[in-house]
Amino acid sequence: MPPIPYAGTRSRLGWAITGSGHFFEESLEVIGLLKNVDLFVSKAAAEVIRMYKSRLPEGMRVYRDTTAASAPVGLFYEGVYHTLVIAPATSNTVAKFVFGISDNLVTNVFAQAGKCRVPIIVFACDTAPELETRAPGGIVKVWPRRIDLENVERLKGFEDTTVVESLDGLVAAIDERMRWLETSFS
Ligand SMILES: Cc1cc2nc3c(=O)[nH]c(=O)nc-3n(C[C@H](O)[C@H](O)[C@H](O)COP(=O)(O)O)c2cc1C
Fold it and tell me: How far is Cα 83 from Cα 106, in angstroms, rounded to an integer?
């Protein structure tokens, strides 16, 4: 069968959130500033959002992790997205990305974006040997393991993938991408 001709408009930003308390609220705030965003929510993210008594930004399409085959990934084949952002990304999700595992909605959108050559921005949160993070009960100290830090480094070698390690870095990477899209397609 011949390939389906490319017919997409690439007019939307895909954004996946995972179950990381670290920078969870801040990532939601950034999403709230953007237009034409579709959200992909991991099962853990759906739980964490309740634990932090937080809310998803309103007025967006939200895809939850309810099917084994991650049906919404078909949108990547249809050319709907110009960019995929994964923020915040847990060390669990980063590890799965690095080893090519696609067994849930977020790991599938990452894999399919990669296979469809959609540029990806990942905000990896376990990026320093010692971090302060906000648990539902307050600020706690955590010490990401060597494997967590190594996986972030491995992810930096992926094609079409920008890894950022701070909120400022995330905002700057999105801004740069939006400006590039504006100048290239205006
Ligand atoms: C309140 C809470 C906060 C969490 N924060 C983090 C975090 O900052 N970083 C992290 O890697 N995992 C964190 N986790 C653990 C992840 O949610 C867990 O590894 C989960 O399996 C990740 O699934 P996902 O990667 O599919 O979203 C947290 C869990 C809870 C309950």
Answer: 14
